């Protein structure tokens, strides 16, 4: 029986040693879990911060896109207006050129008519008795 008690004592010693080892491992795992939770909390904080930054940047991007679209629409409207002004001005220029050409033709015709009339008047004056054309020139 003593032998049985010795074996029980050895077994109890082994159990105590195993219990201490398990308690040590438990403490180690608890420490690792605490460290992992702290790391997770830090990472979550960084993630939240990055998400906030992303949200701000996304809002700024949307604002810039809206501004760009507004400027593009304004530029297109101004472009249409400028094209209309160009077409109108080009049409007006062509009209003025035609009027100028007609006025030049009319001026040339009037000059020719005046020259012809002057020649006729000079001939009439030359044919008058006393040749009065010398005083006209």
Rg measurement, Å: 56 Å
Query: What is the distance, rounded to the nearest whole angstrom, between the alpha carbons of the first and last residues?
Result: 171 Å
Q: Tell me, what's the shape?
A: rod-shaped
Number of helices: 2
Q: What percentage of residues falls in helices of 4 or more residues?
A: over 70%
Mean of all residue-level pLDDT scores = 93
Main beta sheet, described?
Answer: none
What structural class do helix, strand and pairing data support?
mainly alpha
* Strand content bin: under 5%
Number of strands: 0
Instruction: Give the SSE string.
Output: HH
Q: Spans of 5+ residues with little confidence (pLDDT < 50)?
A: none
Task: Write up what this structure looks like.
This protein is an all-alpha fold. It has a domain of 80 residues. 95% of the residues lie in helices and 0% in strands. The protein is built from two helices and no strands. It starts with a helix and ends with a helix. The relative contact order is 0.03. The mean pLDDT is 93. Keywords: Coiled coil.
Task: Tag the structure with descriptive keywords.
single chain; 137 residues; mainly alpha; 2 helices; 95% helix; coiled coil
